[in-house]
Design goal:
By secondary structure, this protein is an alpha/beta fold. It folds into 2 domains: 2-254, Aspartate Aminotransferase, domain 2; 258-390, Aspartate Aminotransferase, domain 1 (Alpha-Beta Complex), CATH 3.90.1150. Helix 4 packs across helix 9 and helix 12 (317-326) crosses helix 14 (378-390). 41% of the residues lie in helices and 14% in strands. It is globular and about 75 Å long. It has a 7-stranded mixed beta sheet with strand order 1-7-6-5-4-2-3, with helices on both faces. The protein is built from 14 helices and 12 strands.
Length: 392
């Protein structure tokens, strides 16, 4: 029945499993364990757990399973494992499949915590990591070797909004038998076609657009059923990174409206970028969905839209701080994908642990601000941005 559902229908109804009470809203099973009819039944459950049988909330839960089924359906993945946070998804996807002596090639432009996992954690345990400019296919081709186990990148880099050619990198990786793992947060599940375009594993921070209202942490790893249940699940359930049932319920509620929210946010992002073209206080307004972006054509091919985030490059940190402090609608925080518009100064917050020369090489200048567009009226947002620029 669900094969012919369009996205918005699947986002509301996909994966729903009702209890005997026939509730309309998905039930929250706030329990850490489950009861068996007999000792023999408990023994049988631990030997072989069926699709609707549960042992312990760290291993699986009916509410969490509904979220996993729904998000996998939207992404076009065979299966999913819901995690406690977006970083639990990133570290779980990588660590569950890697061992000492393996080789990973990663784009250099990453969220600070992703960089920490690759550069500090994995290398500590004997994994070799090579970093490349994600937008340079020549560097990918040179770095990927016959013994490369996996490649990793953000489809749209945080916060510089560089776009990686997913199809081309996947082709290079698969030629050597390497798995392609993508952090797809900025693409969103609404605009993503990552698995269709060659990704083997897709991870999201559900904290961002999937919740979309700043309420809870969460993440998800998606891929083939063999990878999720054979590689990810054993690692995650024993190391404790699984999602709580209450947070899974919040994410289910978020999925119901994500298509409406994200499309409105992307429209506002484009309108703002157009409004700021040629503004004397803005060195660059960076948005993959605008024709001025150097990878605009690639973005349209991969996603059809440019996402919900705009980066503005101002003259320097002092100007950036004056601009941020003058905003009246836009909030200062370090989340993104929220219904409320949020601004961040990456060089002093999310990416402050990077050495200055590394930040500059990535394009994270002292004047760069990351603006996540919410669902406020776009005219109000543009007016707020303009009056704050006047304050510089």
């Amino acid at each position: 029945m669900t094969d012919n559902w369009k996205t918005r229908t699947a986002l509301v109804h996909g994966g729903t499993a009702r209890s005997q009470w026939g509730e309309v809203s998905e039930a929250i099973f706030l329990t850490q364990g489950f009861v068996y009819d007999s000792a023999e039944a408990a023994e049988a459950r631990f030997i072989q757990t069926g699709p609707d049988e549960y042992i312990y909330a760290r291993y699986g839960n009916p509410t969490v399973a509904m979220f996993e089924k729904r998000i996998a359906m939207i992404e076009g993945a065979e299966d999913a494992f819901a995690t406690a946070s977006g970083m639990a998804a990133v570290s779980g996807a990588l660590t569950s499949m890697l061992k000492a002596g393996d080789h990973v090639v990663s784009a250099r432009a990453l969220f600070g915590s992703c960089l920490y996992v690759l550069n500090d954690v994995l290398t500590r345990y004997g994994v070799e990591v090579t970093f490349v400019d994600g937008t340079d296919l020549g560097q990918w081709e040179e770095a990927i070797r016959p013994d490369t186990t996996a490649v990793f990148f953000e489809t749209i880099a945080n916060p510089t909004l560089d776009v990686v050619d997913l199809e081309a990198v996947a082709k290079l990786a698969h030629a050597h038998g390497a798995k392609v793992i993508v952090d797809n947060v900025f693409a969103t599940p609404v605009f993503s076609r990552a698995i269709e375009q060659g990704a083997d594993v897709v991870v999201y921070s559900a904290t961002k657009h999937i919740d979309g209202q700043g309420r809870a942490l969460g993440g998800v790893i998606m891929g083939t059923r063999d990878f999720i249940r054979g590689t990810v699940e054993p690692y995650m359930k024993h190391t404790g990174g699984s999602m709580s049932p209450f947070n899974a319920w919040i994410m289910l509620k978020g999925l119901e409206t994500i298509d409406l929210r994200v499309r409105a946010q992307a429209a506002s992002a484009l309108a703002l970028t157009e409004a700021l073209q040629g503004h004397p206080k803005v060195k660059r307004a960076i948005y993959p969905g605008h024709a001025s972006h150097p990878q605009h054509d690639l973005t349209m091919h991969l996603m059809g839209k440019g996402g919900t985030v705009v980066a503005l490059d101002l003259q320097g940190q002092a100007e950036a701080f004056r601009f941020i402090n003058a905003l009246k609608i836009v909030l200062i925080s370090n989340n993104l994908g929220d219904t409320k518009s949020i601004i961040t100064h990456p060089a002093t917050t999310t990416h402050q642990r990077l050495p200055e020369d590394q930040r500059m090489s990535l394009g994270i200048t002292p004047g760069l601000v990351r603006l996540s567009l919410g669902i406020e009226d776009p005219d109000d947002l543009i007016a707020d941005i303009r009056q704050a620029l006047d304050a510089i």
